[in-house]
Every structure is written in structure tokens, then in C-alpha cells.
Amino acid sequence: xxxxxxLQLACLAVTAFFGVPLYLIALAAFASRESLDRFPLSLLxxxxxxxxxxxxxxxxxxxxxxxxxxxVGLSTVVLALLVGVPAGYALARYxxxxxxxxxxxxxxxxxxxIVVLSVPxxxxxxxxxxxxxTYAVTLLHTALALPTTxxxxxxxxxxxxxxxxxxxxxxxxxxxxxxxxVVLPQALPGIAAVAMFTxxxxxxxxxxxxxxxxxxxxxxxxxxxxxSDSPLAYRFAGGLALVGPAIVFVAVMRRYLLNMWxxxxx
Length: 266
Fold this sequence. Notes:
Radius of gyration: 22 Å
Organism: Hamadaea flava
Subcellular location: Cell membrane
Largest sheet: none
Pfam families: BPD_transp_1
Number of strands: 0
Structural class: mainly alpha
Strand content: under 5%
Family: Belongs to the binding-protein-dependent transport system permease family.
Order of helices and strands: HHHHHHHHHHHH
Membrane topology: Multi-pass membrane protein
Helix content: over 70%
């Protein structure tokens, strides 16, 4: 019983840790200018107004930044899964010389600061004509997401019994069909978790997108470069606009996470 209560308190503490800042940002984004200047500030929505968030969404570059962020995030997910899932499957199923050093090398690539990757990439993209395009940001975000994609999907495929795949092949399925009909459905929750992690990583990344673009910036890069001198209310509105789509994406993908954790949707 004590362990159950302790677990519930820990869950409440973690929820409050993430939920309270989101609540305060939303409260400030939907508050009127006058209520933000009051002291002390009310922790309840006593003076709700959509003026600030509406003005922010109507500002120059916000809608374009939204579309660029969505395009980059979804393209990064697709590209990272197309490359990372086969690599993770190979790591899980085949023993080859240098497999362990290869996994260590993947982790080392994540140790590099983003600016170390962005500056040389900016020069390459300038020479190839990809600079200031969403393709350049997509390639950078894919490079950042691939190590975790490969390692996590490898761990997911290790958890799928090899005997199931071999049994499908014994009954006449080709290796590709056995993978598609037997292995992939069992690994789908883990792959969904990787997709969610990749999308959130791409959505929140700001430094690389700022270096590689000028006019085709993602929303975080646009907010970073334009709202530094803006009023406080617009900064809260920008924060809420950045957090909202990521929360929606996580909410959509949560059913796959719950399935992976062995629970059921209510």
C-alpha cells in the first residue's frame, strides 16, 4: 500500500512539474494586457482575452513558420524511420564484426553540439543551393534524430521473438512478408514512440534552423529572432504556440505508447 501511494505521489509530482509551467504560459497567453500588469498576478483565469494570441497568430511569418515546422517535422519523421528502422533491424538480428563499436559511434554523434554540425552544413548547403530551404533543416534534423532512431528501434526488434519470424518463414512467408506481417506489428508501438520523439526533437530544435535559414524559418527560429524585443504578452503567446502542436502530436500517438507499456485505453 505504501509503495502504491508513493508511486501515485511521484506521478503527481512529475505531472505538476510539466503541467504547471504549461498552465502558467496558457494563463498569460489568454490574459488581457491589463491583468498581466497587475501585482500580484492571479493564478486563476479571471480576465480571459484572446486578443494577444490572435494578434500573435496574425503576425508576419507566424503562419509560414507553422507550415515550415510541420513540413520539417513530418519529413524528418519519415526520413528518419526510412533509414533508421532497417538499420535498427540489422543491429538486432545480425551479428557482424564491429557492431558494438558502431553503436558507440552512433552515440558519439549525438555528443557533437548542433552548432558544430550547422556551420559546416551551412557552407555545403550554400554551395549546393539548399541553403534557406526546409530541405536543409530536414536533413539536419534527420542527422540529429538518426542515432536515437537506430538504437531505440534496435532495442524494440530485440524484444520481438525471433521464433515468430522463423515460424512465419517455415510456413512459406518470404523474409519481407514475415517482417511486414509478423515483426512490424509487434514493433509498431516502439516505432511510434520513436516517431514521437523525433517529431518533438525536430519541432523544438531552434539553433540549427536559425543558422540554415533566413526566409524559410521554422516557427521556433522565427520566434527566437523576432520576439526578443517584443512585449511580454507576445512572448507568452509565442511559447504557447510552440508547445501546442507538440502536445497534440503526443496526444495522437499516446495510444501506441500505452499499448507498448501493456496498458489499455480507457
